[in-house]
Write a structure and sequence with these properties.
Elements lengths: L14 E2 L3 E7 L2 E7 L4 E2 L8 H10 L8 E6 L5 E6 L2 E9 L5 E2 L3
Antiparallel strand pairs: 1-4, 2-3, 5-6, 6-7, 7-8
Amino acid sequence: MSIRIAKAKKCKPAKVSGKRLRIALSSAGTQIGEAAGSAARAALEQNCPLDAAAHAAFSAGLPPETPLRAIYDVTEKPVWHIAASANEGVKRLIDGMSCAVLVSR
């Protein structure tokens, strides 16, 4: 028996407007609204959702009790940039497809 695996075609994400969904969590509660931004491209759905990426970042040494800043970047390949909000120097890169911690990019 032989199995043939086709290579996935690389697709450009679709162009989207500059509106951004902004969700802020604080001790006062959850605030949801729109924020202005520049035109961008839609992100492909990742295999590594935010909660799994955060778990990987904590496992890689990010302090577990600190607020996080998470950015999903698809400029080259899907990557989560997860940092402690108070200290931008403490940052972990997580692969958006496998949830593997990336050493360098």
